[in-house]
Amino acid sequence: MILSAEVECLIYDSQSLKEKRSVLKRVITRIQNEFNVSVSELEHQNLWQRTTIGLVTINSDKVIAEKTIQQTLAFIDSFPELERADTLLEWL
After folding, report:
1. Who contacts 61 (Cβ-Cβ below 8 Å, separation ≥6)?
2. Could you name the CATH architecture of 2-91?
3. Do you know which InterPro entries this protein is assigned to (predicted)?
4. Helix 17-34 and helix 62-77: axis angle, to 10°?
5. What pLDDT, on a 0 to 100 scale, did the predictor assign at position 86?
6. Which residues contact 57 (CB under 8 A, 6 or more apart)?
7. pTM
């Protein structure tokens, strides 16, 4: 089973693209180190305070794939500099 998530986030304290990329790099690196998911910035690369992050996991068990993505989303919520606005989950 393949589960993907598009996560739209707001970065309120960012005053430049450099600050935004610094926050995103830290978040993406920590996600890659903690969870068995692929992650990348999908949209809004040129906006200071907005981003969309894509997450994908593959597992033979649907429940484990769902649990992995939910844990990753909770991990994203733990960062005080990010606010998760919208999340779209899709099974492929």
Report:
1. 1
2. 2-Layer Sandwich (3.30)
3. DUF503, TT1725-like_sf
4. 140
5. 93
6. 2, 3, 35, 36, 37, 38, 65, 68, 69, 72
7. 0.89
